[in-house]
Amino acid sequence: MKHIATVALMLNLGVASVYAQEKPVSMEFSGTSAPSTISLGTGTPTGEYSLAGNGTLGPFTLRAVSAGTASPQESSTCPSPKLYFPTIAGGGVFRFRDGSLLKVHLTEGSDCIDLAAQEALCIRTFQVTGGTGRFEDASGGTVTLTETVVPVLADASNHPVFFAVTGELTGTVSGVDKGEEGQEERQ
Predict the structure, then answer these.
(1) How many whole angstroms separate alpha carbon 95 and alpha carbon 49?
(2) DSSP label at residue 173
(3) According to the model, what pLDDT value does residue 22 have?
(4) Most C-beta atoms within 10 A of its C-beta, which of 9, 24, 33, 142?
(5) 86: preceding bond cis by omega (within 30 degrees)
(6) What's the CA gap between 107 and 92, in Å, rounded?
(7) Torsion angle of alpha carbons 67, 72, 75, 79, nearest 10°?
């Protein structure tokens, strides 16, 4: 009887460790960005992203917000005359076709704005903080969005206010329900 209990415990631990493994993700997306009325308490404007894409975890939409510093900073990765703004707050929610949600919190990011080319390279790194459905047990992982942002529409003062966004997302997600994951990709 003791041997059966030990085997059952080992099987449970083995299943739990497989279940908690980090799953590599790679997804492409496109969408739009615009100023947001949401305040993140930074004293700086908030940008809002509305994105859709597909990849390792299946088709998704992402609504995210972020705010950067008030003035440009020095950066070796974004040399002058480009403008570099670190991103200091933000978060988002991925929604998948099966209704599952994956919540993320910004840990770091940046905007490298090339005024001459009229585009920006924006990077957002998010920590996975939880979810619903097949992401109910999501307990960690980090995903990084690397996006190219170009102005589409300007206001009366010729300041860009609406942007087209394309890019890719890479990283890992822990705690994905393996049983439902394949089902999502087949839909």
Answers:
(1) 14
(2) E
(3) 87
(4) 33
(5) no
(6) 12
(7) 120
Token pair 């999501």: residue: 138
Q: What is the CA radius of gyration of the chain?
A: 20
Does residue 15 register a pLDDT over 50? no
Length of the chain: 187
pLDDT tens figures, 54-69: 999 999 999 999 999 9
Q: Given the structure tokens 């090339």, which residue do they identify? A: 114
Q: Which residue in 87, 129, 133 sits closest to 104, CA to CA?
A: 129
Q: How far is CA 93 from CA 75, 83, 145, in A?
A: 29, 28, 13
Residue ranges of domains in the chain, CATH in brackets: 22-186 (2.40.160)
**79: CB partners within 8 A, 6+ apart:** none
Give the three-class secondary structure for 8: helix
29 Cβ contact partners less than 8 Å away, ≥ 6 residues apart: 51, 52, 53, 60, 62, 145, 147, 165, 166, 167, 168, 169
Q: What is the pTM of this model?
A: 0.83
Kindly give the residue spans of alpha helices, DSSP state H, lying in the chain. Answer: 2-19, 178-186
